[in-house]
Amino acid sequence: MNEKRKIMMVDDEADFLELMAKFFKRRNIDFETAGGCMEALDRLGQGKFDVVIMDVCMPGLDGLECMAEMKKVQPELEVIVLTGHASLNVGISGMKKGAFDYCMKPVSFDELLEKIVLAKEKFSKKSDW
Known about the structure:
The structure is a single chain. The protein is of the alpha/beta class. It has helices at 14-26, 37-46, 63-73, 88-96, 109-128; strands spanning 7-10, 31-34, 51-55, 78-83, 101-104. Helix 2 (37-46) packs parallel to helix 3 (63-73). The model has no long low-confidence stretch (mean pLDDT 88).
């Protein structure tokens, strides 16, 4: 039970991933990035993650399709959906399809961190079963 908790962010915007990586690494959070769904699935195949933060709008498989594929590999995975669309419908749709929660871009670091903590708590409870 002393395994280090891991978080992955999946987004096709390299600058955004770099900014987020700096934010989380400064807080000593084990954080990895993936530039798209296929890379994320490869990383998931190499080890478990507690929480994935997933951009919805990406080339190839979109974030919601990618989330479905990831949950086939690791059903207890918690996903927080990111959307740049100025619509709650995308976030709500993501939650209906199994996401833990959603955040709108531009994302507040504090809001995202709070949602990650809650998602990790839920993941830990599911993993204990």
